Amino acid sequence: MTWTRERIRPIDLGDWQLQLRDDDLAQLTFRGREVLRSVRAVVRDRDWATAVWAVEHVSVAGSGATISLVSDAFGTRFEGSLSITADGASLSVSLAVSADREFWTNRTGLVVLHPARVSGAPLTVTHTSGDVSHIAFPEEISPHQPAFDIRALASEGVTVTFEGDRFEMEDQRNWTDASFKTYNRALADPFPYLLESPVVQSVTVTVDDAGAPAPHEARPAGEALVLREREAGPIAFSVGASTAPGTGPADPVGHDLLVEVDLGWAGWSSVIERAAASGLPLDVRLVLPLEDAERAVARAIDALADVPLARIAAIQPPTHPHEHMSDAQSTRILRAALGDRDVPVIGGTRSHFTELNRGQHLVPD
Fold it and tell me: H or E element: which one contains 356?
């Protein structure tokens, strides 16, 4: 996740430099080398919406800076203060946040973004118990949190220490942001929770006496990707959708029409009829019912007998152990119902990349 509305103010604290991008402390560098991508205060409501801070005042003096924040969000007034102190090879960021009324939050506190270049670097995790784990920042996109119950992280001569809560890390590349995020409040803890004002947390970054070493060597580059001109046009994407009956289909757009058919709903056949009326080949996602899936899929394939199909998938329904995924069972049922019909059968998730990454082992060949 990247937070910026592009109002940038540089802050110079001797060997440490950073940029204040609206309320985000970005590009934290020590002697010219990036140490952290970002430190930011966040307030999330019970639906994961994020409060937008306004910067009321910035004071920079000597080796320190203070930033006053305010936000009127979710019917609540929040006041925050970020205090930044540079002391030789250490930089600390302290946060205090208060609310003027009772407020239920999923997460309120400090969030740190580590740059993507640390991918594959050795990582030492000190837990709140004092126990130590030796792991590495993931090279491949990690579908699950790489580190839990964090008190401190040490890698490449840089140690980041967290105070005020239990922290854990997630791989932000799942959401197309090139970073690793360490955030307060473990997801395993109950949420939402009642905010206890003031929230006080801190992050301290320390570079070893020798200064930050050169980054670890990246993996050798693989075979070069060669792009060749194709005689055919660009890949076609299904840009339309038909999910419910209505007054009539929209004008056809693109080469085919994506249609999701919930076979657990009594009116599913009208969805197919409406989509077929577009005249385009259909890209079909069949969401299976929890019971009698074989019969339901067979009926759907019969209803699609005279409809041109670009491709088709069968997906497990909500509350199924493999919900929102096409797994071996759903694909087997679909292939059996199709029989000899020559239609590309695809697999994946009806959700987003993170869920596909977590459930890729479920998708059959």
Answer: helix 353-359
| Alpha carbon distance 191, 291 (integer Å) | 32
The CA angle 30-36-37, to the nearest 5 degrees, is 120
> Rounded distance, CA 54 to CA 56, Å?
6
Q: What pLDDT, in 10s, does the model give residues 95-113?
A: 999 999 999 999 999 999 9
Helix axes 268-276, 293-303, angle to 10 degrees: 30
- State the virtual CA torsion across 60, 62, 64, 70 in degrees, nearest 10: -10
Buried b (16+ CB within 10 A) or exposed e, 9-28: eebebebbbbbbbbbbbbbb
Measured CA to CA in angstroms, residue 92 lies from 23, 66, 201, 205, 251 at distances of 16, 12, 11, 6, 58
In the chain the first and final C-alpha atoms are separated, in Å, by 32
Residue 1 has pLDDT above 50, yes or no: no
Q: How far apart are CA 285 and CA 315, in angstroms?
A: 7
Q: What is the pTM of this model?
A: 0.76
Alpha-carbon dihedral angle through residues 343, 348, 352, 354, given to the nearest 10 degrees? -160
Q: Counting every residue, how long is the chain?
A: 365
Range 59-73 burial, b when 16+ CB lie within 10 A, else e:
ebeeeebebebebee
Say if residues 362 and 329 touch (Cβ distance below 8 Å). Answer: no
